[in-house]
Amino acid sequence: MTTTMTALFGGTGPHWAPRQVAVPEPGPGQIVVRTHAVALNNTDAVMLAAADPSTGGSGKEYRAGYEFAGQVSAVGDGVGTATVGRHVMGTAPAAFAQYVLADHRHVLPIPDGLGYSEASALPTGLLTEHGALTTGGFRPGQSVLITGATSSIGLIGLQIARALNAGRIIATTRSAAKHDLLKQAGADTVVITGEQDLTRSVLDATAGEGVCLALDHVGGQTFAACLPATKVDGAVVNIGRLGQAASTIDLDALSYRHLRLHGVSFGFTRAAELGAVIAAAGRDLLPAVADGRVRPLVDRTLSFDTAAEAATRLRSHQAQGKIVFAVP
Ligand SMILES: NC(=O)c1ccc[n+]([C@@H]2O[C@H](COP(=O)([O-])OP(=O)(O)OC[C@H]3O[C@@H](n4cnc5c(N)ncnc54)[C@H](OP(=O)(O)O)[C@@H]3O)[C@@H](O)[C@H]2O)c1
């Protein structure tokens, strides 16, 4: 049995650096997964920058990564031994490694026919977008606005809304060149922010009423523009702050429309609650993943040896979909 493995560390410079570390052992309720692919998230770029000593970051080294797919190689007490050998995708810290230690509640089975590369690119999108829809009180038939919809998780959110029988789906991007990408992912209406006024465009597309539910990945004044674009008794859920964390909102729009505002951050959710969010996403969405209605877009598959290229691509925001590492 192998006792050491390669893992990627941040805090060493502008890119991740490989180190040899011990293969983890599972404690109670935990599993160890031999990873075959791990996927990158916007958060990985934010953490890399915050720790990069060459640009004034903390210089504190940390094990990078959150999202993986592979095969269960060991289980701890309280996890059935039949679990060993299962093909799973999931979320756990320190995922950029050949073996990852995970809470057994934080993985989903990989449906037949889905490769490791695509599977690794799904868990964050599935749990975040399904969790946000649930938080916003989504029901089939409701209209949904998704801002920052070309983000990796936004594209999953679009497909999920379609698979769960949303009514009209309106999606935003800053780039006219990505119009067709959003249409293909399930958008009925695409708003090119910068060229079109977001609130006006949404009202025009919804007979002046606004959408039932807005999922916002951008924050800043895009979040503010979602409020008057949401119908009476509707909900706005902030998921990401790709633009800015600070926002000046119109309280008249909030109060006169009786809106509900929510924020979700599943990286800061207690383990048992996250387990319930993942279980609900699996229950509602695995059939749609299995039959191809929900599929991640993989921008490119790289390796730990080309981690610098991956970090540069992630920071560029030019990627269409997920960047994935195939794990040796
Ligand atoms: N709440 C949670 O639990 C949770 C979980 C995961 C991720 N997140 C957050 O969700 C967001 C999306 O994550 P991701 O990993 O999917 O991102 P990503 O794939 O890196 O998103 C890239 C896209 O974001 C858009 N974008 C970049 N900068 C922008 C800006 N200043 N204003 C508007 N749009 C901008 C660009 O789209 P266009 O060029 O097409 O406009 C770009 O293609 C991030 O803020 C992330 O931190 C939250």
Give a written overview of the molecule.
α3 packs across α4 and α3 packs across α9. Helix content is 30%, strand content 27%. It has ten helices and 16 strands. The chain has 328 residues and is an alpha/beta fold. The strands form three sheets. Strands 3, 5, 6, 7, 8, 15 and 16 form a seven-stranded mixed beta sheet that branches. The protein starts with a strand and ends with a strand. It is globular, with a radius of gyration of 20 Å. The model has no long low-confidence stretch (mean pLDDT 96). The site of NADP nicotinamide-adenine-dinucleotide phosphate (NAP) has 26 residues, from α1, α3 and α4.
Key features of this structure:
Quinone Oxidoreductase, Chain A, domain 1, alpha/beta, 10 helices, 328 residues, 2 domains, single chain, 7-stranded mixed sheet, 6-stranded parallel sheet, binds NADP nicotinamide-adenine-dinucleotide phosphate
Write down the CATH class of the largest domain: Alpha Beta
Structural class: alpha/beta
pLDDT < 50 runs, ≥5 residues: none
Fraction of residues in β-strands: 25-35%
Give the count of helical stretches.
10
**What is the domain tally?**
2
- Kindly report the average pLDDT value: 96
Distance between the amino and carboxyl termini: 16 Å
Order of helices and strands: EEEHEEEEEHHEHEHEHEHEHEHEHE
Global shape: globular
Radius of gyration: 20 Å
| Assigned CATH superfamily of the largest domain | Medium-chain alcohol dehydrogenases, catalytic domain
Which small-molecule species are bound to the chains here? NADP nicotinamide-adenine-dinucleotide phosphate
- CATH fold type of the largest domain: Quinone Oxidoreductase, Chain A, domain 1
- What is the total tally of β strands? 16
Helix content: 25-40%
CATH architecture of the largest domain: Alpha-Beta Complex
The biggest sheet, with number of strands, parallel, antiparallel or mixed sense and barrel status, is: 7 strands, mixed
